[in-house]
Structure formats: C-alpha cells, structure tokens
Amino acid sequence: MLYHLLYPLYKYHTVFNVFQYITFRTIYAVVTALLLSFIIGPYIIRKLSAMQIGQVIRKDGPANHFIKEGTPTMGGVLILLAIIIPTLLWANLTNSYVWLLIAVTLGLGAIGFVDDYKKVVQKNSKGLLPGHKFLWQLIIASGVAVFLYFTGFNTSVAVPFFKNVVIPLGWLYVPFVILVIVGASNAVNLTDGLDGLAIGPIIIAAATYMLFTYLTGHVKIANYLQIMYVPKGGELTIFAGAMVGASLGFLWFNSYPAQVFMGDVGSLALGGALGTLAIITKQEILLVLVGGIFVVEALSVIFQVGSFKLRGKRIFKMAPLHHHFELNGWPEPKIIVRFWIISIILSLIAISTLKLR
Ligand code: 57M
Prior knowledge:
By secondary structure, the chain is mainly alpha-helical.
C-alpha cells in the first residue's frame, strides 16, 4: 500500500523515488515485521493464555517437557500477521507472485489453525484427521502448481553445483511443486518440538531465500551469475524480508524458555511459504540444503518408522531427531543452538553454489 501511495509522489519530490527500490522496501518490511511483533506480541500471548490455548504435553515424551504444560500455543497467528501486514504495506500489490505467497501462507495457516483450535480450544485430542489435513495441504499445493503451470512458469529445474544442467520436467513440474510445498510444510511441523528449534532455521532459510529472490529477480545479476532469471520474482524479496522480521520477532518470545509455541498454524504456514519461495526463485533442489535441518528431522521419522516396521527395532531413541538428543541427556538449549549453527553452515554452502559451479 505504501508503495502504491508514496512512490507516485516522486513527480513532486525526488525523495519518493526511494520507494521504487526493492532493497529499501525489504529493509522496511523487516523492520515493520519486527516492530509489529514486539507491539502486538505480548497482547496476543495474553489473549491466547486467557483463551486457555495452552499446550497439552504428551506423557510418553522426554520428561523435561512436562513443565511446558499450559504454555500458550497458536503463536503462529502473530507470525502470520507480522508477515502479511508488512508485505501488504511494502510490496507491489500488482505482482501475482506476492498474492500467491500470501495465499499459500494463509491457506496452510488456516489448516493448522483448524487443527490447533480443535486440539487446544475444543480439547479434541485428535484435531484434524491426518488424512483430511493432508488432503487440504494437497489442494493448496496443487493450486500453486496448476497456477504456475498454466501461466507459463519455467518448468525446468536447476541442479545445484552444475552451471548448465537443468532438468526439463514439463507437466511433471506439477507433482514436483506439490511435493516441495507439502514436504516443506510437514518437515517444519515435525521440527517444531523444542523452543526456537524450528523458528531459528526458518529465519536462516528465509534470509537465504531473501537473497535468492533478489538475485534471481534481477536480470543483470542473474545473467552475471548464470542462474535462471525470474521476471517479477524480485518483488518476493519483500515477502521474504517480512518472513525474516516476523520470525525474528517470534523468536523473541519463543526462545528458551518459551512464552509461546507457534502451533500448526505457524509451522505448516512457514514451511509452505519456504517451499513456495524455493519454487519461485527456481532454487527448488537447493531447499534440501538450505532447509537441511527440516529434511534430516523428517528423514529421522521416516527411517525410524521404516526400521520399526521392517526390523522391529528403532534406529533412534525417539524420532524426530531432537528427541533422540534429549534422551541422550543433551540440555535443550544446546540442541537448539547446535541445530541453528548447522543451519547457518548449510545456508552458507547453499549460497556458495551461486559461484561454485
Ligand atoms: C508436532 N508437536 C510437538 C506446539 C508446536 C509421526 C510422528 C513422528 C509425529 C510427531 C508429531 O506429532 N509431530 C508433529 C509435534 C509439540 O509442539 C506443538 O506442536 C506444534 C508444532 N506442530 O508449535 O504447539 C510439543 O513440542 C514441544 N515444543 C517445545 N517448544 C516449542 O517451541 O518444547 C514445541 C514447540 C509441545 C512441546 O513439548 O507440546 C511434539 O513434539 O509433540 N510425533 C512425535 O514427535 C512423537 N514421536 C514419536 O512418537 N516417535 C515414535 C515414532 C512415531 C517415530 C518413535 O520414535 O518411536 C513424540 N512427541 C512427543 N512426545 N511430544 C513422542 C513423545
């Protein structure tokens, strides 16, 4: 909105020219998201507590989680507001990718919201049936895939570390997009089991994709780096910036010991947004590296369940992986910070692939 209101004023004063720059608007999207989180965060946490939206802790998990009973959840509502409002303020709202990202985030957030609401407010321990949850995720991801396919989006996928190797997927790009979005959404959800464990790597991944959106959306830089240029994709830098700011703002409250959990409303939405950013920047495969922590957490569950079914034995003391370290006696903050450190290293390697090809 500010972009549309203020940029045209450059005719009267050159100072308003600054509103055309993606870099300027991104910085202010980050700042707005942070400020918004700080201002409305305490209010939302109080409201969630008053509405008794407190977490029920499973009794079969690591014992150090029992003291977390009653911590308000559904803090993802705060994250979503702090992403969407700055995006609406600072982005060019005639850009269809901006609306696509807003739609995915709110759509997946709505699935998580219904699930959380059934669990914590209506005290229905099952929440949304897993099959229904998955079906709705598929519907939203299919919407993105079909939209991109029929609007002529580039259906070739770049292979990291190789300069001119691309896989032309054609119509197979549709199931590929669905896999990336649904996979990312669920992987972030599985990771969200310790204070700040999911939001830390989300900040790092969103910052990495903030860089990619800018570079792939800039024709000169994209040509120079020989990466796929995405016309109009640069505008998503503002969305990614808002995601960084909102996630940092949430970490303020979710850092150990957490005052609030994000709930599925946050984890499903953030994962899906990340997957969609990877798709629009044409850096889909690189998400395996940038979101490496989420991938490893999801794989730990797949291997654990597979091993138990096939051999009747577990690989880890408990899956997802963070539970394994907890049961090995690592203090919670140590696991969290070590996962962040690994996430930073993975993102740096991912960024280096821009040159390392
Ligand atoms: C959600 N939810 C957290 C909070 C958060 C297939 C199986 C692996 C599924 C998995 C599962 O249910 N995962 C999805 C995990 C829960 O957090 C809530 O959920 C939201 C995210 N969706 O925002 O609202 C608990 O996590 C802790 N937490 C924090 N700080 C945070 O900032 O401490 C969350 C956020 C919270 C809190 O304690 O209550 C969760 O872990 O439940 N299931 C599991 O993870 C279970 N694993 C398991 O059964 N493993 C088996 C098999 C199936 C692989 C095995 O290894 O043999 C464990 N989960 C728990 N206890 N809690 C089992 C023991």
